[in-house]
Amino acid sequence: MALLNSLLYTAAAFVAYYIVKRVVNGLRSPLYHVPGPWHTRFTPIVNRYYRFTGEALLYRHEMHKRYGPLVRFEPNLVNAVDVSSWEQMHRMGTGFRKTKFYEKLRIGPAATLFGFIDVRVHAARRKLFSRALTLEALRRNWEPAVRAKVDLCVSLIKREVETQGTAEISRWWKLMTGDVVTHLSFGESFDMLASGGASEKKYFDAVELAGVNIILSDMIPFLKFWALVLPFQILKDIVAAQEIVASKGAVAVRNLRAVDGDRPSLFSNMMAEAEKTGNESDKKESLTDDDVISEAASFMLAGTDTTSISLTYLVWAVAKWPDVRRRLEAEVATLPPNFTDKDVEALPYLSNVLAESLRLYNPGGVTIPRVAPPEGVTFNGHFLPGGTNVASQGYTLSRNESLFPDPDKFDPSRFENATDVQRRVAQPYGIGARSCIGKNLANMELRLATAVFFRECRGVGLASNMADDRMMDQMVKFFVYPRGNRCDITLGSD
């Protein structure tokens, strides 16, 4: 009994010490003056609870409405959602670097472009990738393949409506973007559209769980250990997901190293573009097999859900506004029969629809953390010392009422005469050297899919089960996704 009491007293002492230390640190913190809920001075638990439930985006947005553009969410995490702070955080040369969170973004045996913290390492890898991902290079090498998958996807959506009365579009868009990104990354498509999602289902499920793995690993220490000892299959699946995704990278390696080169990929394009420059430093910047495996897996994670979710929200928003739909249908009807991405890019109203949809429903509009430079920074009159974790949130920034009147309304016409600051803020792919490397591919997919869909599927409306708009609330796993995880449509509304 004496031993038990001694252990209990020791445990209580440790708990008391932990609490007192938290309180003292919170009261002495140089961030004490930053606005925010009282508990953020002492513990990250509330913010991390909302991250765990997927509602962090909406929670932070409400806190910004209550406390203003600068809000403290954890003892060492401050969010800034005004234009000046956002640009300072992400502009080149301002000294803000990625936090250690990005080191957890590795999927596979090697670090990737998205996860590099070292600026020089990131710049070298980005330079290698950028030539193969210019709009000109993508149109030259990949537009026919992308267009074929778009055409197939839209025909399958249309057939499902004709045979079943409704179609669940988020599923089809995800199969399409998955086929596109596997074709480009691996040199061969997984043909998910043709199989209706049956082929490689395990792999695509793992891609989704890999994003969950990244978030949970940041919040739960020793996640792999808990997956081993706890009897929860979902936890085991989450931990195993990254290995499944990475294992498929062997396909990318095989096709890249093949002597005949009959299955080109983005990676072979990158090597070819580097050779064309004649620059010895470009030629030396090669990719190891582990690099290819990891980058291919990273492209899968970043390039599948983001574009498919964007298309889902776009169709949902247009279907809710018949006047917008009719005007868009009329514009895409003017395209020539064998139109190209360049033809679609020239359509002003379609461009405005895309811009407005991405303003409101940006799948990457989540909190983007950075570390304040050693000399510190002043945001909104509050000094934040060097080493403070700071972040922006595109979801809130793009709903700034002073920039976008009636910000929650889907109104493509607001971009007809957009101001410079409105266009600067409406950057769904980020700004600066860390902006999304795949934005040209994403925009090509979005343009072609929007044009083909609204030419072939006229009169789109929402199915009866979509009456509750809360189904489309923006939740967060790794990227943003609809709360209801589906969007059902009908055709022939006119």
TrEMBL record:
<dbReference type="GO" id="GO:0004497">
    <property type="term" value="F:monooxygenase activity"/>
</dbReference>
<keyword id="KW-0560">Oxidoreductase</keyword>
<keyword id="KW-0349">Heme</keyword>
<protein>
    <submittedName>
        <fullName>Cytochrome P450</fullName>
    </submittedName>
</protein>
<dbReference type="GO" id="GO:0005506">
    <property type="term" value="F:iron ion binding"/>
</dbReference>
<dbReference type="Pfam" id="PF00067">
    <property type="entry name" value="p450"/>
</dbReference>
<dbReference type="GO" id="GO:0020037">
    <property type="term" value="F:heme binding"/>
</dbReference>
<keyword id="KW-0408">Iron</keyword>
<feature type="binding site" description="axial binding residue">
    <location>
        <position position="436"/>
    </location>
    <ligand>
        <name>heme</name>
    </ligand>
</feature>
<dbReference type="InterPro" id="IPR002401">
    <property type="entry name" value="Cyt_P450_E_grp-I"/>
</dbReference>
<keyword id="KW-0479">Metal-binding</keyword>
<dbReference type="InterPro" id="IPR050121">
    <property type="entry name" value="Cytochrome_P450_monoxygenase"/>
</dbReference>
<dbReference type="GO" id="GO:0016705">
    <property type="term" value="F:oxidoreductase activity, acting on paired donors, with incorporation or reduction of molecular oxygen"/>
</dbReference>
<comment type="similarity">
    <text>Belongs to the cytochrome P450 family.</text>
</comment>
<dbReference type="InterPro" id="IPR036396">
    <property type="entry name" value="Cyt_P450_sf"/>
</dbReference>
<dbReference type="InterPro" id="IPR001128">
    <property type="entry name" value="Cyt_P450"/>
</dbReference>
